Every structure is written in C-alpha cells, then in structure tokens.
Amino acid sequence: MKKVFHPANERGHNDIGWLKANFSFSFGPYYNPAKVHFGALRVLNDDIIDGGTGFGTHPHDNMEIITIPISGALEHRDSMGNIGVITAGEVQVMSAGTGIQHSEYNHSKTEKANTLQIWLFPKEMNIEPRYDQKSFTEELKINHFTTLISPVKGGDALWINQDAIFSMGDFEAGQAVKYDIQIPGNGAYIFVIEGKIAADGTDLNKRDALGVEDIGSLTLETQALSRILIIEVPMR
User: Fold this and answer.
1) Which of the chain's termini has less CB crowding within 10 Å, N or C?
2) pLDDT in tens, 106-115
3) Cβ-contact 3, 211 below 8 angstroms
4) Distance CA 30, CA 206 (A)
5) Share above pLDDT 90 across residues of the chain, in percent, rounded to a whole number
C-alpha cells in the first residue's frame, strides 16, 4: 500500500476578502510540486464565500467539476441555459467537455456559504458539455456510505465522465467502517469533512485527508461523530 497524508493545516490558502479558499492541491496562487494531483483527482478546494458575493462568469473545458455545499447555498448559471440553486445536501456535476461558461454566487446576501469544489480529469476528452444536480438528503443514513457519483449511468448516483466513485456518510463515534475499492486499480482519497477518524493507522481530524493506493480495502475507525467523503479515482 502507498499512502500520502495531507493535513488540513498544510493546505494552500488564499484570502481575498470575500473568498477564503483552502487548496488540497496546487491551484491559482498556490503551487506545491508534491501536491499537483492524486491520480485523476486534480482539485479539491474548500471555499468560504461571503454573502452577496461569488464567482463571475468564467470558462472551463475538459474537466469534470463537482460541487458539494457543506453549508449555505450557491446560485448557478451556465452557457447551457441551466439556472438554479444548489443547497447543502445536494451535489452538482458538470462535464465541461468542449467548453462551458458559468457563474456561482452565494444565494444569501448576508450568510456565508461553505462549499467543496472538486475537479477530476475526464475519461473522454471533448465530450458535449452536460450538467446535473441531485439532493441526497433522503439517501444519507447514519453509519452508512451513500454513493453520490458513479461512472454507471441510470443509477441513483450522479453520472461522471470518469471511472470514479464518490461516497459520503455520517458515522457515530466508535464505528469500524470497511471500505472496499469498487474499481480494481483505483486509489481512494479520504477527506474528513467533520470529526475525527483513524484510517489504517493514520489519525485524521477535520479537513485532513489521506490518499491510499495499491489496496483492495481499508478500515476507518471513528473517534467522534464524523462526516467522511471518499473519492475513489483511477491512479494512472
């Protein structure tokens, strides 16, 4: 097994007033040659956005873009004609493909919003751009992983143009949770949104992450009420 530990306090950081961003991987003004990507996982940004502010219209291409609001909500508009609001409990997926433009603003004029924005390299290049979002409020059960994103079309999870699987769950303290790699050869990036766990002997606190590869399964032991996100991705 190979593993890489990314402590929360060693993430890149950018504070421009209305936006306080934490970067798990090199992004924008932050560059660390040891943290460019983990397999197909290219970006994991933990953004806090002030009320009444946000990201104006900007382009993307050939990237799979996932947004997971932790608290608050974002207003979304894009060049495909999609207009809507993404709230905590929902997940948004965009395949940028041949090219899109979009904007994201905090839906509240006064309250901060905290979101995870995650980018994956695509499996197929230059596909037709697409957009989807779904609420997982009903599916998220205590002490159980829920699949948010999958490469399988037509299931309960959102489809992604990559052999990647996103799983998230809330777990009480004292749980021993086994996670099996679902696609042979994939690695897993474990990100602790809230709480405290041990992942195969490595202690992870809030916003810490651990990337593991060359394994078939791993065991997570929860030491407090924890929300855990596992991003399973191709490594090569």
Assistant:
1) C
2) 999 999 999 9
3) yes
4) 21
5) 97
**What was the pLDDT predicted at 200?**
85
Report the chain (236 residues): mean pLDDT per 10 consecutive residues: 96 97 97 97 98 95 98 95 95 97 96 98 98 95 97 95 98 97 97 96 96 96 98 96
Q: Which of 178, 183, 225, 171 is nearest to 200 (CA)?
A: 178
Residue matched to tokens 């590869």? 213
The first and second tokens of residue 51, run together, are 């009320």
Give the burial class of 77: count Cβ atoms within 10 A of its Cβ; 0-12 exposed, 13-18 middle, 19 or more buried: middle
> Cβ(93)–Cβ(80) under 8 Å?
no
* pLDDT tens by residue, 172-207: 999 999 999 999 999 999 999 999 999 988 999 999
Alpha-carbon Rg for the chain, nearest whole angstrom, is 17
- Judge if 11-135 and 146-234 fold alike in CATH terms: yes
> For residue 117, which of 93, 146, 141, 151 has the smallest C-alpha distance?
93
Rounded to an integer, what distance in angstroms lies between the CA atom of residue 19 and that of residue 197? 29
Is CATH 2.60.120.10 the right assignment for the domain spanning 11-135?
Answer: yes
User: Hey, what CATH class is 146-234 in?
Assistant: mainly beta
| Angstrom distance (rounded) from CA 199 to CA 203 | 6
C-alpha span between 223 and 206 (Å, rounded): 12
Q: Where are the domains of the chain?
A: 11-135, 146-234
Whole-number Å distance between alpha carbons of 174 and 167: 20
